[in-house]
Amino acid sequence: MTYFYEILIVVYLVVALMLIGMVLIQQGKGADMGASFGGGGSNTVFGSTGSGNFMTRTTAVLATLFFVISLILGNQTADKEKDIDELELLGVPGIEQPVSDIPAADKQQPKSDIPN
After folding, report:
1. If we measure between CA atoms, which residue out of 80, 77, 72 comes closest to residue 12?
2. 3-state secondary structure the chain
3. pTM to 2 decimals?
4. Alpha carbon of 18 to those of 4, 22, 46, 55, 96: distances in Å?
5. What is the mean pLDDT of residues 50-72?
6. C-beta neighbour count of 15 within 10 angstroms
7. Where is average pLDDT lowest: 45-49, 70-74, 76-80, 81-85?
């Protein structure tokens, strides 16, 4: 199970980075208006409208994968008991009270400097 979890974490990170990249590559909706008035940005590799369809579908697939993997990882870690971390055991020790082995009757009363 741990190998599946570790592989899922790696896939999750790759999908997240790809999703971020796809969102940053896409043009905003206002960019098409500038291209229609004679801007030179309309000549792209996929054509003037082809890239939007490919990129939006890819972004939707990556977002769905990201969501599904998030649910799977959350489900796997929800039932797992937290293991005791050895670093947490290295905390600052508390102040210990000295234990007296002398019974209460044998203890001497403190002497006062004032005579009776």
Report:
1. 72
2. CHHHHHHHHHHHHHHHHHHHHHHHHCCCCCHHHHHHCCCHHHCCCCCCCHHHHHHHHHHHHHHHHHHHHHHHHHHHHHCCCCCCCCCHHHCCCCCCCCCCCCCHHHCCCCCCCCCC
3. 0.54
4. 21, 6, 19, 12, 55
5. 89
6. 20
7. 45-49
Residues 97-112 pLDDT 10s: 666 666 665 556 666 6
Predicted local distance difference test score (pLDDT) of residue 112: 62
* Placement of tokens 């599946």 in the chain: 4
Query: Per the structure block, which two tokens stand in for 7?
Result: 């592989």
| Single-letter amino acid, residue 16 | A
Instruction: Provide Rg for the chain, Cα atoms.
Output: 34
